[in-house]
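We were asked to recover a plausible sequence for a given structure. The inputs and outputs are reproduced exactly as logged, with field labels preserved.

PROBLEM: sequence recovery
POSITIONS: 79
GIVEN STRUCTURE:
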């Protein structure tokens, strides 16, 4: 699995745990809808750490909590 795929899965996992719609997350993250949607739907292959931090804040978690998931343990090497 690639990093962007694991990131996408983790965002959706946390979003569903908190019962947030995509639009609620967009609002809480304070980001352009197109940016968040491209990350959520896997179109953004390199979402950037600043965007991930904003999304984590919108989800109400720290960066440490965001990346504290087994999904990030077995990533494929990036090109």
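RECOVERED SEQUENCE:
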């Amino acid at each position: 699995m690639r990093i962007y795929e694991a990131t996408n899965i983790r965002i959706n996992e946390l979003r569903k745990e908190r019962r947030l719609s995509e639009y609620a997350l967009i609002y809480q993250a304070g980001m352009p809808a197109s940016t968040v949607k491209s990350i959520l739907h896997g179109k953004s292959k390199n979402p950037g750490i600043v965007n991930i931090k904003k999304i984590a804040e919108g989800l109400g978690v720290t960066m440490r909590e965001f990346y504290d998931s087994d999904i990030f343990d077995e990533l494929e090497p990036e090109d």
